[in-house]
Structures are given as structure tokens and as C-alpha cells.
Amino acid sequence: MEFPNLTIGDLVAKIPIIQGGMGIGISLSRLAAAVANEGGIGVIAGAMIGMREPDIRSNPQEADRRALRREIQQARELTNGLLGVNIMVALTNFAELVTTAIEEKIDCIFAGAGLPLDLPKYLKEPGHPKLIPIISSGRAAALICKRWWTKFQCLPDAFVLEGPLAGGHLGFQPDQINDPKFALERLLPEVLEALKPYVQQIQRAIPVIAAGGIFTGGDIAKFLQLGAAGVQMSTRFVGTDECDAAPAFKQAYLDAKEEDLTIIASPVGLPGRAIRNKFLDDVKEGKKVPFACPYRCITTCNYHEAPYCIAQALVNAQKGMLTHGFAFSGQNAWRVDRIMSVKELIATLQAEFALA
Ligand SMILES: Cc1cc2nc3c(=O)[nH]c(=O)nc-3n(C[C@H](O)[C@H](O)[C@H](O)COP(=O)(O)O)c2cc1C
């Protein structure tokens, strides 16, 4: 069986796969365009996107804006497919990046790491781009719907529901991460239920896209069967030629064993999943000391007390300097065993989906 389409209002992706935004340079124009060319939605991540700009320390806001604009334009040159941006709500320059993406006529904005309660206020034209909050509970879905409806008379075009097996920062308390009550399979029906009254009210679908630990075509089939309209996948896309990280970052995935996956207490106040290494061991053993904050990138960052700058550590990792940083990853990073093209990856997923 062929993959079904993923329909979000008047946008139709040929395959129901969104490549999740991976900040600090892991998903930029090259990866996003490659995914869009295969019929999925390719997502450029906004967090620290200006990391290679000469003025990233002196004028981070402007550096990020310029780099985001350029990455969207470059991606557009490489594809006619669907493109999104991922902009974390906790970024200090959330508003500027959202405005820039809208000016560049991006197709979708994905916003998580906080509730994007005011996102519709940036729209110039209703329905464009599609606004897609990333949530981790039915409660968050209902809260956003209620707020958007009361304040803006609109509702999200779709939701990404991110479960506890995802990579990077997680929307769960540490004790919830391994609790079966919070498994993606359990959260999905809860979110669909929470959205029911709103779907009835507006008489249109609010697609829910499942994310976190989805690795094979069989997984995709399973979540579509449970009621998801599509899936968002990230870890698997790190194992592609087109992923924008340095080869050493991808190698960290290839080398990772299951026991290397770990949960850290990120300086930004959320738990995060990463691949354990010497850098993280040193942090744990108290061998790192507080630093001067170079970027002021995250509103919730406790940089006065944090023993390292997470933005700098992730920049270093993206560039392949893993002795001075670490790789964020989903729980399935250890299953990535070779680097392939995005085309081959999508074909593999399609074949697995057909079998399932
Ligand atoms: C390296 C990496 C960086 C990530 N960066 C972001 C980010 O900047 N913003 C965000 O909302 N999610 C981020 N995520 C989460 C993913 O977009 C995605 O929802 C999640 O990892 C899906 O689970 P999977 O990796 O098991 O497929 C990141 C994930 C990884 C692995």
C-alpha cells in the first residue's frame, strides 16, 4: 500500500512524513529540501540558526534573522515541495523569527518548547502559513484551542504530539518519561478526544501528527491506524547524507549503543535526551563551571548557575567537536546503523509501510 497523503487545510503533502526541526544547525535547507522533494514536509530549525554568522555574538538577533531568511530562500531554490520552520517558543527572538518566516512565505510554522499562545497574532493573511503547535498532552492541546478561539477566533491548523521517546528537549517531567501512562500510544487518543469539541465546532479536521520514537514504516502504519494524520520523525533523518550536521555528529549516532541514551537536566529548565559522552559525564561530575552567557538565546535558561552553555555545546557538536559538546537524539539513535540518502530512507519507509 502506498503512503496516504497528509492534508493540512489546503496543503497536501504526498507522504505523511514531516521531518522534525532539529535546532542548532542539524536541519537546515539541505535536509529540509531533500525531504520536501520526496513529498514530505521539510523543516528548517530556527534555534541558533545564525551560528555561522560573523556577528552571532555581537548581534545574535540580526544574525539569526539573516540566516533564517537565507536558509528558507536556499531551500526554495532546491525544491518546489512543502517547507516549514521550527521556532521554539522559549527563544528570546521567537517573534522576530516568526515574522521573518512569514515574510519569506514559509508553508508551516511549528512551535513547541512552551505553549505558543499568541502565535496567530503574527499572521498577515488568515490560513498562511499553517500554524502547528507542538504539544505533549491533551490538556495543552485544549488550552491552546481555547485561547486561540477566544482571542483570535481561529484554531491551530494541526498539532504535533511529541511523546517521551523524542530527542532534544522534552515536554515531560523526568518521572513521566518512562511511565507507560505517558507513552505516545496513550497520549494520542487523549489528544484526539480533547480536540473533538473543537473539530465539531469548526467542521474541519485538526490533524494530529505523532512524534517521538517513530523509526520504521511499520511504526508509521501503527500511528496512522491509531488516528494520527501523519508522523514527525527526526532521529532517523540524522542518518542521512543530507542532514546538515558534520559527519562526526552522525558518527555519534552510528556509534551509540542503547545504554548510551540518557536524559539530562538541561540548563533551559527541561529534561532533554542525548547521547552520553565524556562532556556530559564531566558535567555530571561537577567538572564544568558557570560561564558568561554568549547568546541570550533562551528565555528560560538559568545561565547564572548552569555549568555550561547548552547553545555552545550543541554548536560544537554540530560542527563535529564532540569533546566540547554532545548530540541530542531520540531514544532510537542506537538503531541508526548507516548513513543513506533521504530518497533511500523514504523508499525504505514506504516498503516497510507496505509490508505492515
Ligand atoms: C538533534 C535534535 C535536535 C532537535 N531540535 C529541536 C528543536 O530545535 N525544536 C523542536 O521543537 N524539537 C527539536 N527536536 C525534536 C524533534 O523535532 C522531534 O520532534 C523528535 O525528535 C521526534 O522524535 P524522533 O527523533 O524519535 O523521531 C530535536 C531532536 C533532535 C534529535
Short key terms for the protein model shown above:
11 helices; globular; binds flavin mononucleotide; eight-stranded parallel beta sheet; alpha/beta; 356 residues
What would your notes on this structure say?
The longest helix is centred in the first third of the chain and has 19 residues, at 60-78. The strands form 3 sheets. This protein has an 8-stranded parallel β-sheet with strand order 3-11-10-8-7-6-5-4. Strands 9-13-12 form a 3-stranded antiparallel β-sheet, with no helix packed on it. The model has no long low-confidence stretch (mean pLDDT 96). The chain is built from 11 helices and 13 strands. The protein has 356 residues and is an alpha/beta fold. The structure holds flavin mononucleotide.
In short:
This protein has 356 residues and is of the alpha/beta class. It has helices at 29-37, 60-78, 94-103, 138-152, 184-202, 217-225, 235-238, 247-255, 278-284, 310-318, 342-355, and strands at residues 6-8, 11-13, 17-19, 41-45, 82-86, 108-111, 130-135, 159-162, 168-169, 208-211, 230-233, 261-265, 271-275.
Topology record:
Layout: E1 6-8, E2 11-13, E3 17-19, H1 29-37, E4 41-45, H2 60-78, E5 82-86, H3 94-103, E6 108-111, E7 130-135, H4 138-152, E8 159-162, E9 168-169, H5 184-202, E10 208-211, H6 217-225, E11 230-233, H7 235-238, H8 247-255, E12 261-265, E13 271-275, H9 278-284, H10 310-318, H11 342-355
Helix pairs in contact: 1-2, 2-3, 4-5, 6-11
